[in-house]
Amino acid sequence: MKKLLFLALSLSILSTSCSTADDPFVEVEPGPNLENGLIILNEGGFQLNDASIGFSSFTYDKYFENIAKTPEKVLGDLAHSIAFKDNKAYVVLKGSNTIEIFDRYTFKHLGAIKEGLNKPLYIAFANNNLYVTNEEGKSVAVYDANNKFIHEIPMDAPVGQILAWNTKLYVQKNISETKSEIVVINAEFAITKKIAIDNKLQGIATLGDFVYAISSTKDKSFFLKFDAHTDEKVLEFFSTRNANAKNLRLDNNDLYYTSKNEVYNWKPNDTYVQTAPVLSLEAETFNEVSSFYGFNVINKVIYVGDAGDMNEPSKVNVYRQGKKVSSFTAGIMTNNFYANYK
């Protein structure tokens, strides 16, 4: 009996000596639930390999940084865009010449695409294929359902956005500062039409049976609408009031764009510009380069990423009905926002 008591006492003393009141207790914070919230893309600095993806719930009470990492423990260089298909997120890294693939709800790394890329910018999905615009390669790279490189479509000029409409692809082609095209590609990788655009093309969007586009100069903006069945122009109007229009975005059945320090709504059946902005940033602090560096509209909520001096973390501002409802700090050079729903 004495031996048992001695053994119990010894174990008690040993336990006490291994854990004292002075030992720090580190609580591991649980990761965010990514199934219903805002994905925030941070471009990062040139050749700094510090691109990142952040996350916030739609209550904006906490920003989670660096939710996406490759096996090398980083994301990469110059994150330009994200495209989603099924449960996957395809992150286009312009500086790394790579597309990193993640599970969009856990951001577990699933693989990468490296072949056929030369400063990639945007992705579209159609015909069971993946299409990628290559800015420096002046081409569209095509991959099959297994992400295998299968074809290259030469564009002979720098390209930007790419959108899918049924079996067609629409590609933004920037020939010069004063001349652009929308290039139409069919399912057989053939260019079927080149739609000439006066001035610099600033954005394209597809909605219903139509393709919408804006081009602009510092003094004027042009608003265009094309029938996606025929690729013929059905509407064009211009504005000197809402000059230098940029950042065309689609939210549900409405279009939005920025003009100087303001955001405007472009309804699909408009034949002239809206004169009242839905949001105005302070003109005194507005910077043409950094103030709208990140911009999107999701369920009528406007998200603005202010890149500041391009070196410090960006400020994200959230607006409803023209009023700021939240503000928080994100990563370096925040350039876009995406809704993540399951």
Folded structure, characterized:
There is one protein chain. This protein is mainly β and 342 residues long. The protein is 5% helix and 52% strand. It has 1 helix and 28 strands. The strands form 7 sheets. The chain has a 4-stranded antiparallel sheet, with no helix packed on it. The chain has a 4-stranded antiparallel sheet with strand order 4-5-6-7, with no helix packed on it. The longest helix has 17 residues, at 2-18.
Summarize this entry quickly.
The protein is mainly beta and 342 residues long. It has one helix and 28 strands. The radius of gyration is 24 Å and the shape is globular.
Write the layout of secondary structure elements.
Blueprint: H1 2-18, E1 36-42, E2 52-56, E3 63-64, E4 79-85, E5 88-93, E6 98-103, E7 109-113, E8 120-126, E9 129-134, E10 139-143, E11 149-154, E12 159-165, E13 168-176, E14 179-185, E15 191-198, E16 200-207, E17 210-216, E18 221-227, E19 233-239, E20 245-251, E21 254-259, E22 262-266, E23 279-280, E24 294-298, E25 301-306, E26 313-320, E27 323-332, E28 334-341
Radius of gyration: 24 Å
Strand content: over 45%
Order of H and E elements: HEEEEEEEEEEEEEEEEEEEEEEEEEEEE
Tally of contiguous helical segments: 1
Bin the helical content: under 10%
Low-confidence stretches: 1-21
Structural class: mainly beta
Straight-line distance between termini: 62 Å
